[in-house]
Each structure stands twice: as C-alpha cells, then as structure tokens.
Amino acid sequence: MAQAAAKHGENHAHGHDHGHHDPQEMKILGFWFFLISDVILFSVLFATFIVLRDNTAGGPILSELIKMPGVIAETFLLLTSSFTSGLAVLAMNQGKVKQLINWLIVTAVLGAGFLALEIYEFVEMVHEGFSYTTSAASGAFFTLVGTHGLHVSLGLIWMIGLMFQLKKRGITDVTRGKINVISLYWHFLDVVWIFLLSIVYLMGVM
Prior knowledge:
It is a multi-pass membrane protein. The protein is mainly α. The chain contains 7 helices and no strands.
C-alpha cells in the first residue's frame, strides 16, 4: 500500500515536471522567433533594394559614392567583434567573469567603431546629394543599411546592460542564457552584413 502511494506520488511529480516549462528555455525559444521575423524583414528589404537600386531619378548613382576602403574597415571591425563575442562565450563557459566582461567590452568597442564609420559614410553620401529622399534607390539603400545599423545599436545597448548585470550578479543561469543569446544575435548581424557587403557594396561597385 505504502509502495503504491509512493509510486503514485512519484508519477504525479514526473507529470508535474513534464508540464513545467523552464522560463529560460521559453525566452530562448522566443528569441528564435524574433530572429526568424528579422530574417523575413531583411529579406523584404534586400528584395526592395534590388528592385529599386537603378531608380535614381537623375540623382547620384550609388556606385559613384561607395568608398571601398571604408567598407572594408567596417567589415573588419564587425567580423572581428563577432570573433571576440565568441571569446566572451568561451570565458563564460570557463567561469571567468572578469575575462567575460573584458571581451564584451572589446566587442562593444569594435561594434561602436563600425557604427561610427557607417554614420560617417552616410554623412558623406548626404553631402554628395544622395539623401534618403533623393530617389527610390537612395531610400531603399538607407532603409536597408540603416536597419542593420539600428540592430547593431540595439545590440550594443543590450551588451552594455549585460556587463552591469554580470558585475552585480556574476555568472548565473540567467546571465548565461542572456550571453548565449546576445552572441547568437551578434553572429546573425554579421551574416546580414556579409549579404550587405555582397549585394549592396560589391555589386554596386561592379
């Protein structure tokens, strides 16, 4: 009788565990849905740019404005920041909080450098008469590249917030999950930039 009762209690406990959802797992699942929606967003923006890039309305042509040294520098900074974000995850897995924070700082500095170069590029283009409202081509360019830049900015704010959390709480299950997510997000932005580099800049120059 006692064994039957114990078995019933054990089965009930297992049933409860199966019905329970780990909040951290749910957050990661939600983030995957966010990434999927972002993939759809960028796909639409890329398609729009490809359709409209020749509609200059008599204004400046993008190929005449692209300065590849600056674009290469942006690429170097962003790809290097992806590598350092990977090193941050490695430090986290080794339980090294200080090293983790330091790599996040390096990643954020590289990301900020990328944004600074991109803003400088935008300012130069506007001075050349290629602004958001100049033509359909310019509008599509600034919307696509600017949306990526906005995502990088949000990632930097997010990363800085995580640094403060790590200093306060250290490496916990919660902060561990957040670091994994921000690293995944950062790698995603790198992939988007590779498409930008290929479709917008390299094809634009050609």
